[in-house]
Design goal:
This protein is an alpha+beta fold. It has three domains: 108 residues, Beta-Lactamase; 102 residues, Helix Hairpins; 190 residues, 2-Layer Sandwich (Heat Shock Protein 90). Helix content is 57%, strand content 16%. Helix 6 packs antiparallel against helix 7, helix 8 packs parallel to helix 9 and helix 9 runs antiparallel to helix 13. The longest helix has 51 residues. The radius of gyration is 47 Å and the shape is rod-shaped.
Length: 489
């Protein structure tokens, strides 16, 4: 059974219509009465009775010549060859009569009832009695015109036409019922991908059924979500800007206090300075996140070497980690370029690596692996990496838009630490702004929950994805997948 609602509706309606059509056709063919059977003879019965009475009256008034003229005219007009018999079973026109006509006339004289005879191989005969004003009795026997059977293929042609019309109707009905669902699904995907202005109502036009009501409810929900998120973004931006001014004044006051105070206040002033620096960094991250959310951070994209960028970030992080008895190790496989905003991706990858340095155990190293996958190795790596979004991107590159002569591929960056990891239920939440797995631990490490959120949005703006997974032997592994060009081993 197909999973598509459109196919289900179309096939079920089509099956029902096809069954009714074929069943009706077969029943009609199997139970069809003989030509001119009782249901079809009623109008003809009345006409034959009139013909019989007119023929009898014409014979008595105008004789044989008048009867012959009347019957000839009847044959020309109605295609009926008629013969008039008297009570002696004598045909009164003198024309050649069908073989079964005298027998039919005799039975009518005996029963006084209309007669229908359809012998195999001969034309059907219908007989009607007539009584004139003089009291004479006659029987009109009419030979029906031969029935020309249509070719067998005409039945199939009729059936095909009916099925085609029924199929078109089922297609239209199924499309009419599922079209709003398809449009609602497309709008839902746009909303999930960050297009908060996605609406489905205008696409439905003047439709006023239950699906239109569902679309109206969706648009109302999307409007409220857009309003809430925009309010949150404006609040973050406004707060960040407003905090910058008092922070700058506090730094000036701090310098003045340091000049006027003695040695006893040095420790306290240095603590104030560190906290001010932390606050300044947090405000900077808030502003960066706000610009990313609003799209203002995206600048003109250029082509640059991603492998060199990752190398620079790993070297800087290793230098800083050395002072904390930690290290960063980089493993590079291949080289590739990427089209994007370099400083955004630098910040994204740097945030992930610095986050790993913060939480890896003392005396351990953060393992950074950079892979450039060309067309031929995308599917192989998709089976090796348990990253559902990565698999989806691999399928997209290999099954659509990835021509055999294309040099397009994927850049995969994995950053693994040797810390305590993250609870399974928090793996998807750590990319949310201000999310803390452990407040005490995060505050001790100096984190405010914005680094991974900024990384996720920057990577998403470049058509990539970021996911996190716990390593069975301990630690957390963050995987960044980006579309790349010029991938080489």
């Amino acid at each position: 059974m197909p999973r598509s609602l459109f196919l289900k509706i179309f096939l079920w309606f089509g099956a029902v219509v096809f069954t009714v059509i074929v069943g009706t056709f077969l029943i009609g063919e199997l139970t069809r009465p003989e030509p001119f059977g009782a249901p079809l003879r009623r109008p003809l019965d009345l006409a034959l009775s009139v013909y019989a009475q007119t023929a009898a009256d014409t014979y008595e008034l105008d004789g044989q010549s008048g009867l012959v003229a009347y019957l000839d005219r009847l044959e020309r007009e109605s295609k009926l060859r008629a013969f008039l018999f008297n009570d002696q079973i004598q045909e009164l026109t003198g024309r050649r009569i069908p073989a079964g006509a005298p027998g039919v006339a005799r039975r009518v004289f005996e029963t006084k009832l209309p007669e229908f005879a359809a012998d195999e191989g001969s034309a059907p005969l219908l007989a009607r009695p007539a009584l004139t004003a003089r009291g004479s009795q006659y029987v009109l026997v009419a030979e029906m015109p031969p029935r020309i059977a249509p070719p067998p293929w005409t039945h199939l042609l009729h059936l095909l036409g009916i099925v085609l019309i029924g199929g078109l109707f089922c297609y239209w009905l199924a499309r009419y019922l599922t079209s709003p669902v398809t449009k609602l699904r497309a709008a839902t995907r746009e909303l999930a991908n960050g297009n908060l202005s996605a609406r489905v109502g205008p696409a439905l036009g003047t439709r006023r059924d239950e699906l239109a009501s569902l679309a109206a409810d969706f648009d109302l929900m999307a409007e409220k979500i857009e309003s809430l998120i925009n309010s949150q973004r404006r609040l973050l931006g406004d707060i960040s800007h407003e905090l910058r001014s008092p922070l700058a004044r506090m730094n000036v006051a701090l310098e003045l206090a340091r000049q006027r105070s003695g040695a006893d206040a040095t420790s306290a002033l240095e603590r104030i300075q560190r906290e001010a620096e932390n606050l300044n960094e947090m405000i900077g991250q808030l502003l960066a996140l706000t610009r990313l959310e609003s799209g203002a951070e995206v600048q003109r994209k250029t082509e640059f070497d991603l492998a060199s960028l990752v190398q620079e970030i790993a070297d800087d992080a290793d230098f800083e980690a050395g002072s904390r008895n930690r290290s960063v190790k980089l493993e590079t496989t291949g080289r590739c370029k990427i089209v994007g905003t370099e400083h955004l991706l630098r910040r994204a990858i740097e945030n992930v690596v610095r986050n790993a340095v913060q939480y890896t155990a003392e005396g351990t190293e953060v393992e950074v692996k950079f892979e450039c996958l060309d067309k031929t190795s995308v599917e192989e790596s998709a089976n090796r990496i348990s990253h559902t979004k990565y698999k989806a991107q691999s399928s997209r590159f290999t099954r659509s838009g990835f021509e055999p002569d294309s040099d397009q591929g994927l850049a995969v960056i994995t950053v693994r630490d040797h810390g305590a990891g993250v609870p399974e239920n928090a793996l998807a939440e750590i990319f949310r702004p201000f999310y803390r797995v452990d407040d005490a631990r995060d505050r001790e490490a100096g984190g405010v929950g914005l680094g991974l959120a900024i990384a996720e949005r920057a990577v998403r703006l470049h058509g990539g994805s970021v996911t996190a997974a716990n390593v069975t032997t301990g630690g957390l592994m963050v995987t960044i997948v980006l579309p790349a060009i010029g991938a080489t081993k």
